[in-house]
Amino acid sequence: MLASLVAGATAGLPSSAEDTVGQANRGTRSTEENPKSAPKLPYVYTNWKHLTVKDGLPNDHIFAVKADGHKVWIGTEGGLACFDKRTGKIRSWTEKDGLPWPGVVSSLDTNRKTGELWIGLFGGGIARFSGGRFDHFHQLNSGLVNDVVYGVAIENDNVWAATTAGASRYNTVSKAWTIYTEKNAPMEEIWNYGVSYNDGKVYLGVWGSGVLEFDVATQRWKDYLDPDGEMEIDLYRDDGIVHVITTGTSYINGILWISTYFGMNRYDGRHWRGYYAHETGLPSDFGNAVIGRSADEAWFSTDKGLGVLADFATDTWVTYTMDPRSHAGKATISRAGRVLGTVPLKKSVPHNYILCVDIDGNDAWVGTSKGLGWATGTGYYPGLKAR
Fold first, then answer.
1. Containing domain of residue 53, as a range?
2. Looking at the DSSP assignment, which residues form a beta bridge with residue 84?
3. In sequence order, which ranges of the chain are alpha helices (DSSP H)?
4. In b/e form, how buried is each residue of 173-187, taking b as 16+ CB within 10 angstroms?
5. What angle do CA 61, 65, 67 make, to 5 degrees?
6. C-alpha–C-alpha distance, residues 103 and 99, integer Å
7. How do the pLDDT tens digits run along the chain, 387 residues long?
8. Torsion of CA 34, 36, 39, 40, to 10 degrees
């Protein structure tokens, strides 16, 4: 199935690139040819499935997705869902099923130690789902600073909630709450768009305040702002974060990946790299979210498609889009802004407005405004590969 799909999907590439994508995706290579003459290309996801309300989702507008073993948790505009990869079935929870909010499920994270699912509710605070029961935390019964929650993240025994009025941190053992606003954190604005945690550091994406880093060990904050101070334009290349309206952060292998409304970033602790649509494979500068797969690969959710930086060193990208008229898909391979070729796909992302992504081993889950995409990564390889 995958081999035939790849063979038919590479018609838009130059002949050498066709062979490379097809054979590399199948995990084969030629030993008879000179490897120096063979083009090196990234892995292209050609096997996509779509999940919508027809399959059991409560709503097609997907705001959050979190893969956890055989379960894939899905936050929608109309409730919570869980896709079981073993059975292929979806179970949903809405207000009538105990979910303590009738509207948007904006964010999700799982506590690997306890198995609890933590749920951000856009206007309803946060909820914990454990043992089939929902526990509800909001402004009136807890230390949550605001009920409009954009993001949740698990940090050890703590749960972080990014809200429109600051961030809250809840210790699930001591039951203590800590609130972070402009009074005790370097927030020039308090509208928190997102939160992530990894390797002892919490990162907040803040509207108008760039990125805030909280070191769990030292309890100290560090802020990342555009050094030139201009809101409308990035005056100097790679001098810092490209813009202070930050929507997402992802820290992995010592690299901080950032999405903003006006471009994307990679930061290795010393050097910044800014990414813009006019010079890379990004489909748009308007970023909704980002997830890093490694120090060299990151997936950017934008309003015009999915942009995957597949290999940092060579600035090689794979961009996934769909034709709104035919609903057919396309993967565009580019390097340093130059298109190397296109791969027509029977299916790609369900819609070009991408809101979230989660990496699930070799697979990827892509939340859009018209359903959830499941990209199966049979034969996936990182970076570039010659045939």
1. 49-376
2. 71, 89
3. 2-9, 15-25
4. eeeebebbbeeebbb
5. 150
6. 10
7. 223 233 333 434 444 444 445 544 644 333 334 555 678 999 999 999 999 999 999 999 999 999 999 999 999 999 999 999 999 999 999 999 999 999 999 999 999 999 999 999 999 999 999 999 999 999 999 999 999 999 999 999 999 999 999 999 999 999 999 999 999 999 999 999 999 999 999 999 999 999 999 999 999 999 999 887 776 677 888 999 999 999 999 999 999 999 999 999 999 999 999 999 999 999 999 999 999 999 999 999 999 999 999 999 999 999 999 999 999 999 999 999 999 999 999 999 999 999 999 999 999 999 999 999 999 999 999 999 986
8. 120
- Residue written as tokens 């070799």? 362
Burial code (b: 16+ CB inside 10 Å, e: under 16) for 30-51 equals: eeeeeeeebbbbbbbbbbbebb
Q: Is position 38 within any domain?
A: no
Nearest alpha carbon to residue 7 among 321, 310, 24:
24
Residue 195's DSSP bridge partners are: 204
Asked whether residue 215 is assigned to any structural domain, the reply reads yes
CATH of the domain at 164: 2.130.10.10
Residue 4 backbone dihedrals phi, psi, to 5 degrees: -70, -35
Contact 25, 43 (CB under 8 A): yes
Assigned domain for 10 exists: no
**Is 156:169 a contact under the CB 8 Å cutoff?**
no
> Is the C-alpha dihedral spanning 345, 349, 350, 353 positive or negative?
negative
At 101, list the tokens.
């909010």
Residues 49/333/307/302 CA torsion (nearest 10 deg): -90
- Does residue 242 lie in a domain region? yes
**Six-digit token string for 90:** 């979806």
Q: Are the C-beta atoms of 197 and 207 separated by less than 8 Å?
A: no
- What does the buried/exposed string (b/e) look like for 81-118 if buried means 16 or more CB atoms within 10 Å of the residue's CB? bbbeeeeeebebbbeeeebbbebbbbbbbbbeeeebbb
pTM of full prediction above 0.85 = yes
Report CA-CA distances (Å) from 300 to 67, 258, 286. 17, 9, 10
| Structural domain count of the chain | 1
